[in-house]
Every structure is written in C-alpha cells, then in structure tokens.
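BUG-329 | component: ligand-complex export | severity: low

The export step for sodium ion jobs runs without errors, but we want the raw record kept on the ticket for reference. Input record follows.
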Amino acid sequence: MTRVFSGIQPSGVPTLGNYLGAIRNWVPLQETHEAIYCVVDLHAITVWQDPKELTRQTREMAAALIACGLDPRRCILFVQSHVRAHAELAWIFNCVARIGWLNRMTQFKDKAGKDREAASAGLYVYPNLMAADIHAYHATKVPVGEDQKQHLELANDIAQKFNHDYGVAFFPTIEPLIQGVAARVMSLRDGTKKMSKSDPSDQSRINLTDDADTIALKIRRAKTDPEPLPDHLAGLEGRPEARNLVGILAAINGTLPENVLREHGGQGFGQFKNTLTEALVAHLTPIAAEMKRLLDDPYALDAALHLGAERARAIAEPIVAKAREIVGF
Ligand code: ADP
Ligand code: NA
C-alpha cells in the first residue's frame, strides 16, 4: 500500500478551512493507503506559542482529527515531537538544502512579514523540517493544499541532492495527492484572504468547536454584497464573498458550486445564509460534541497518541538510522 503523510499545526482551533481543505480528505485515505497523520508541534513553535496553550492545543487538534473521522486503529496518528527522528533528519536536511532555495519560499516571506530579520531561524528552515517529516517515513504521496506545493518541490530537491551527494538511491520522489476539487475556504470578513486559525479575528472563521448560535452569528455577520445570488458561475465573477459562501455550502453538501446556484440562484443572502447555517450546524455540531467527549477523557486520548508515536517510531527510526549511516555517523 502506498504510504501517505500529512501534518497539521496545533497553532489554534481547527477551522472549517482546515476541515474542508485538509482533514476531511484525509479520512478516506485510511482505507486505500498506509496513512500517517501528525500534529506538528515542532512546526508550531516557529512562531511564539505559550507553553500551556501549546500542550492544550496539541490535544485539541488530535481530538479534532479523531472527531472528524481519523481512526487511530486505521491510521497512524501521533504528535511530531514524540518522534525524535523528525528533528534528527531535519538537521541533516538543514545541511543539504541551500540557502538560495529557502530564499525562494513565498510562505516565509508571507509569515515573516516586514521584519524578516526578527523572524525565528526555525521559520526560515521550516520547509526542511517538513521534508524530514515526509522522508523519515519514505512516504511518496502527500495530500496538500495549493499553499504547500512549493514546499513539496523543495522536499524533492533535498532528496535529490542527498541521493546525488552521497551516491545513493535512498529517498524517493514525493508526489502531491490532489483529491477532487480543492476546497479553498476564504475569510468571512474578507473574501480575498484565506480562512486561517491564526487570523487575529475570530469572526473571520468558523471553528470546529463553535456551537450552533456562534455559527449562526458568524454567518449572519459574514461580509456579502447587496446583489441576490446569480444562477450560474459567471455571475460570481468579482464577488469573492458570495463565491466563498456558495463554495462552502457546495463543499459541505458534497456537490459543486454550479449545483448550489441552480438551486438557490435569485435568493437574497438573508435566505441563503439561513440555509448555509443549517447545513453547517448539522455537519459540524456532531464533530464538536465528539471532540468534547474525547477531551473529557485526556488519559484515553494520550494513550492513543502514545500508541501512534510507537508505531511511527517503528517506521521512522530504521529509515533515519540508515540516513545517519549514509552520512557517516
Ligand atoms: P492554518 O493556516 O489554518 O494555520 P495550516 O497551515 O496548519 O492552517 O494548514 C493545515 C492544512 O489545512 C493544510 O493542508 C492547508 O492546506 C489546509 N488549509 C488551511 N487553511 C485552509 C483554507 N482556508 N482552505 C482550505 N484549506 C486550508
Ligand atoms: Na498556519
């Protein structure tokens, strides 16, 4: 079975964007692939994280993943820092990757902001750690969003240079796993920005922990324009907020935006937002309830994550031991 790897940062409460763009697509891969999923806390500390919050959010993210349908018996689910092989291989990759390659990474430029000199060195070498995450398992398929494609190319450049410099055929080529139409969920306050758990405004996103009233309020306040919904896709041109809400309902209902417009075209946003709220509440509140149940039993959750880490180590440790040997350690 082909091995897939993916990770998510415990840098906040998982959002509807994380769910529709990533987590939901990870669920079916458990049946068709050897699936390895990781809460990447080492990545999270590339920007400041309060220690207590980091611990809490790591558990919360793991609970969210399980509540969304990842089954620790059908996939390997663990916390990145529990498996030392990630950090060890990342150091080797720090010495393989070239500074010029890292300088081309657009996400660093976005995340570091204006004062690049003040960004952590970790944020700069983040793509090397991501490469190590994948290569430590010899995973060959990675379900990623559009935003991560550049990092995946870098992971392949690192593997190629390692193989070339040491004269081995050790690290395989990684391919992105594109699943259907990529759902890209935008901010509820600004249709041109992606919905993110690290956005300072809580009103910009739906959190997987939001209750029915909170979801209703956020959707009611979501930015829209005064025109009714069009009945065809071209009518969404230049209307990013309308496009986003239509896209969210389509993704939740497992259909295409054109079908949503066929059904709801001509409606005003008041009516459409009620439909959207109902769909979101029906879909998300069972997930929130399951998350709460899992978080109320932290010992069971920690036990599941421990087991996941053990299974992850059983794969990663021999691969990284071999990489050490190749390097001459
Ligand atoms: P965030 O920006 O919310 O902190 P991460 O960087 O941790 O998210 O990304 C975790 C996964 O969720 C990645 O696979 C990413 O492509 C996906 N993702 C994040 N935000 C969105 C979004 N708004 N729409 C679709 N997918 C998203
Ligand atoms: Na992030």
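Assignee comment: Attached the raw record above. The first helix runs from residue 16 to 32.
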